[in-house]
Design goal:
By secondary structure, the chain is an alpha+beta fold. The chain is 32% helix and 20% strand. The protein contains 17 helices and 17 strands. Strands 12-14-13-16-17-15 form a 6-stranded antiparallel β-sheet, with helices on both faces. A 5-stranded antiparallel β-sheet has the order 5-6-10-8-9. The chain has a 4-stranded mixed β-sheet with strand order 1-2-4-3.
Length: 507
């Protein structure tokens, strides 16, 4: 504790000397420390764990200069640095560590969003949430949007740099595909734009995450066109209603649909109304056009679903954001609420599917889910294809392109705080992941970086060891990411339990 206090004092003195203020620093002795720490925590199982280390201090940056000072002073004091924008890191690497003494650099106050007068671009600070981004864009012009994720409280900083898949990706690609410039503070505390950082680093922070390379403060994003009217629907079918056959069919046609049509599937156990368990598959969709156009497309492409006019509701694109977030009928102002929605724990894993799973295979998967007791797992399947097939695997660090039919996120949330319950859920999730192995990609079995999964492996700081898990997230791009790391941060000042290892060019 004496050592920790000494380090904190060294950091605080340095920070004051550079900013003339300490009011944005919260140490463990500060009465507001826990409130600030928990302000955007999404996964309580890490915060309540005795095996994780909490930050020795938190800096709530109010200016870019605060960020530069925090980086420089962390270096000087010998402290690790974790950057948090929305707190959605699936393995909580933005707010706890596995033993490293560190500070949190919280960017929540850096949330400015400026849309240019021609509605072609916007500058978005890293602390802004997706809800704030969508709301601000739509309030400026309701026929432009940005292709990113569904959850409105996710922070732009982590989401954009990790890829950013969502309902518009089949039309426009990922969030990272639509970043035109960025401002980043490097390990020396210098503020760099795209030109100053160079194309290698700019490539890396689009899909490779920023946590290994620097602190991204702001993004210049390309806005995309959406029609005044879009049409979502959510149609649920259970096993008696041919859910298996519908999902089997969906696998092969969803990636080939018109790019304006996005249909994902959420599969989970449910009561069939007779106190028996069944599988429900929710076909959750967005069409960039009118209801009549959608019905015509569905009649030609997926008549088996039996979509009816009453299943579809025409609305603005911003209203569709509310629809997918579970806020249908609410005021768009709710998108500005940054409060964590759930006071809970969760675990997730991910896969990519390259070959459609057979009807028999799906039946085995349903059987596995139905045999489980009190395991609240949802399989969320997002189709690729369209624009995603047109961009090469190496265009940016995000590599999951042509050849993938869809992504699966295995997601489980629970509210119990007992450690035994945690371990039971985690153990079952791992069994589910093992069970799925024959049905998904292989060599490597790929995963989506924004669905962080520490079970894939912890960083050893050596490329030869870390490629085992790194190739799962980044495929062949992992080596280039390691080269970039070796160029910009060879001593791994920016690091966490799954950070990119440095690799020198001579290797």
């Amino acid at each position: 504790m004496i050592l920790s206090a000494s380090i904190n004092q060294s950091f605080i003195q340095c920070f004051i000397s550079k900013t003339n203020s300490s009011q944005n620093i919260y140490t463990t002795n500060n009465t507001s420390y826990n409130t600030v720490l928990r302000s955007s925590v999404q996964n309580l199982r890490y915060l309540n764990s005795s095996t994780t280390t909490k930050p020795t201090a938190i800096v709530t940056a109010a200016t870019f200069a605060d960020v530069q000072a925090a980086v420089a002073c962390s270096h000087l004091a010998g402290l690790g640095l974790r950057v948090r924008s929305g707190g959605h890191d699936y393995e909580a690497m933005s707010y706890v560590s596995s033993g490293e003494v560190f500070i949190i650099l919280d960017l929540a106050n850096l949330r400015s969003i400026t849309v240019d007068k021609d509605f072609a671009f916007a500058w978005v600070e890293a602390g802004a949430t997706l809800g704030e981004v969508y709301y601000t864009i739509a309030k400026n012009n309701n026929t432009v949007a940005f292709p990113a994720g569904i959850c409105p409280t996710v922070g732009a900083g982590g989401h954009f740099t990790g890829g950013g898949i969502g309902t518009l990706m089949r039309m426009y690609g990922t969030a990272a595909d639509n970043i035109d410039d960025a401002l980043l503070v490097n390990s020396d505390g210098k503020l760099l734009d795209r030109k100053a950082m160079g194309e290698d680093l700019f490539w890396a922070i689009r899909g490779g995450g920023a946590a290994s390379f620097g602190v991204v403060l702001s993004f210049k994003i390309k806005l995309v066109s959406v029609p005044p009217i879009v049409t979502p629907f959510n149609v649920i079918r259970n096993l008696r209603q041919n859910a298996t056959e519908l999902v089997q069919r969906w696998q092969t046609i969803a990636p080939k649909f018109d790019e304006k049509l996005f249909i994902r599937v959420l599969a989970q156990t449910a009561d069939d109304g007779s106190n028996n368990k069944t599988i429900e598959a929710a076909f959750n969709s967005l069409y960039l056009g009118s209801r009549n156009e959608l019905l015509s497309v569905m009649e030609k492409s997926f008549p088996e679903l039996g979509l009816k006019a009453e299943d579809c509701t025409e609305m603005s694109w911003l209203e569709s954001v509310l629809f997918f977030a579970g806020y249908s009928g609410r005021s768009p102002d709710i998108l500005l609420d940054r409060t964590p929605e759930y006071n809970s724990s969760f675990k997730a894993k991910s896969d990519f599917v390259k070959k459609a799973i057979s009807k028999e295979g799906l039946e085995k998967i349903w059987e596995f889910l139905l045999e489980a007791k009190d395991e609240p797992l949802t399989m969320i399947m997002d189709p690729l294809g369209g624009r995603m097939d047109e961009i090469s695997e190496s265009a940016i660090a995000f590599p999951h392109r042509k050849g993938n039919l869809y992504n699966i996120q295995y997601f489980m949330r629970w509210f119990e705080t007992d450690t035994v319950v945690h371990e039971r859920h985690l153990g079952w999730m791992r069994k589910m992941y093992e069970f799925m192995q024959p049905y998904v990609s292989s060599h490597p079995r790929t995963a989506y970086y924004n669905y962080k999964d520490i079970d894939l492996g912890e960083g050893q700081g050596r490329y030869s060891a870390d490629v085992v898990w790194g190739a799962k997230y980044f495929k062949g791009n992992f080596k280039r990411l390691a080269y970039v790391k070796g160029m910009v941060d060879p001593v791994t000042f920016f690091g966490n339990e799954q950070s990119i290892p440095p690799l020198s060019i001579k290797h």
